[in-house]
Amino acid sequence: MKPGNFRDRGGFKRRKKVCYFTQNKVTHIDFKDVELLKRFITERGKILPRRVTGTTAKWQRPLAIAIKRARHMVLLPFVKD
User: Fold this and answer.
1) pTM of the model
2) Domain extents for the chain?
3) How far apart are CA 12 and CA 27, in angstroms?
4) Has domain 20-72 been given CATH number 3.40.50.2300?
5) Along the 81 residues of the chain, how does pLDDT read in single tens digits?
6) Smallest Cα–Cα separation from 81: which of 45, 47, 54, 51?
7) For site-directed labelling of 24, which of 4, 35, 37, 60 has its Cα 20 to 30 A away?
């Protein structure tokens, strides 16, 4: 497979991941917006990496801080059992 080819092993093209915050023109991430933050954590409560969510580095840093603040304020769980 050529390095410039975007085809997966299944033969279909991968869709380019787009940053949610850039696309929706978000100005800041509020730690009290639990529904938004839940999109970026796993079922176990771990923060999803950029390569999975498509979030840019500029927004991944404040996102991680907001998730950690929400955990300390008991809005989000640290771990789900």
Assistant:
1) 0.81
2) 20-72
3) 35
4) no
5) 556 555 666 677 888 889 999 999 999 999 999 999 999 999 999 999 999 999 999 999 999 999 999 999 999 988 876
6) 45
7) 4
